[in-house]
Amino acid sequence: MLSAARESTAMKTHSSIHFRPVAVQPRSAAIVSPSRQRHFLALSRWLFAVAALLLIASQSQAQLRPGNRLPQFDFDLLDGSRLPASELRGKVLVHMFWATWCPICLDDLPNLQRLHAAYASRGFEVIALSVDRNRADVEKFWRRHAYRFPVAMRTMEMRDEYGDLTGTPTFLITDRHGIVRVRQTGAFAAGELERRILSLL
Fold first, then answer.
1. N or C terminus of the chain with fewer C-beta within 10 Å?
2. What does the pLDDT read at residue 147?
3. Beta-carbon neighbour count of residue 132 at 10 Å?
4. Are 196 and 182 in contact (CB under 8 A)?
């Protein structure tokens, strides 16, 4: 009888307990306030502007500009001879970066030959630096036209020192102290190159 009473009491106790279901809230994505969004946007724009300025600065530093000193090179010419940097010191120089496939360059070469012949005795020199990929093409071209001023291929070292080109022809004119006075991409106006040279001789 006692055990039956206990069972009856336990059943009543369990039947009196009520379990309420609890809804589990799913974790929602983090909500970013409008003010924080504006902050992130402003920061992104600032970082982009800084990156652009650094890129422009690096490109500017990679190119010789007027006022820079010209790097010194011993040139291995296409005819097999070497033109040492010591022979160029104290001269007014025109470096012309050109290519056999560049029509403006081909138009400028006869004028450079004329200027070289006219002013070499006064301490003027022209150096043509070809950016062609095929040296044989340049050698064939130079033999056919018989230009008298020095010509060489632009090397990787020269590209690093002189800087990247934005086009051909590109001219560097330096004074007798080896300082770049003119950097120009594209043809000069009629007579302008000669005037620039004469102003430095």
1. N
2. 94
3. 17
4. yes
